[in-house]
Amino acid sequence: MICRVGDDQWGKKYKDHLKNEGVNVSYVHITKNETTGVAQIVVAENGENQIVIVPGANKCLSVQDVEESIELIKNADVLIGQLETPFETTYTAFKLNNGIKLLNAAPALTDIRKILPFCTILCVNELEASVLTNVDVTISNASMAAKKLLETGCETVIITLGSEGAVYMSKNEECPKHVLCEAVNPVDTTGAGDAFIGALATFLVEYKDYPLHQLIGAACAVATISVTVEGTQTSYPTKNDFFCKKYEYVQLE
């Protein structure tokens, strides 16, 4: 983990928490005179959520932080980036990495075109895809949106669709695919996208010989379990065998 936390009580506690979870915290920096980034989450009765983000120390993650961790970034099998930290920092890291570069383009921003040719995988939800394509993206036109996003230079585009699963397309494939998802009654959808991204990154390394539609299906299964439990990290499953079944998918035009 390469990040910044504040010099408040939450910064130290969170660094300790990450360490206890087995995360290497060598590049988790405590930032003086800054608060730790927080997210205020409101969950509706149907499980949907609204999130207000206060970035705090997140906004201080710098290109210098990238340079100080350059060997780790260059040699990582998978580099995950997102847009809650300064864009130039993520952009610099993506140009350096020699592995799979997975960008979760959240929160939705428009002016990120220059990083997309460096993305092995661009992963967005319907809202984020809509912002990037200037089209109101739904399941009915997700394949068109994926094709349009591929034109920006990334190698693979995944559009997550909540309970509808995900649509993806790669440059080396002629047609997009719709990976289906098990229906559940959601309790709290907060963090489902993060569950998907984290699971996908893990599966890309540990099950790299599997076809991408199965990796995406397994990541959808992780996210699906997470929405049946309250909370974010506390809702993430850890010990399930997600490859004991084959995940259904449909070829689209």
TrEMBL record:
**Family matches, as Gene3D superfamilies:** 3.40.1190.20
Keyword Metal-binding attributed: yes
**Gene Ontology biological process:** D-ribose metabolic process
Domain (Carbohydrate kinase PfkB) ranges: 1-238
Which molecular function terms from Gene Ontology are attached? Answer: ATP binding; metal ion binding; ribokinase activity
Do you know which InterPro entries this protein is assigned to? Carboh/pur_kinase_PfkB_CS, PfkB_dom, Ribo/fructo_kinase, Ribokinase, Ribokinase-like
Q: Which domain of life is it from?
A: Eukaryota
Cellular-component GO terms for this entry: cytosol
Q: Which family does it belong to?
A: Belongs to the carbohydrate kinase PfkB family.
EC main group: transferase
Keyword set, alphabetical order: ATP-binding, Carbohydrate metabolism, Kinase, Magnesium, Metal-binding, Nucleotide-binding, Potassium, Transferase
Q: What is its EC number?
A: 2.7.1.15
Taxonomic placement? Eukaryota, Metazoa, Ecdysozoa, Arthropoda, Hexapoda
What is an example of a Pfam family matching this protein?
PfkB
Q: What is the protein's name according to its record?
A: Ribokinase
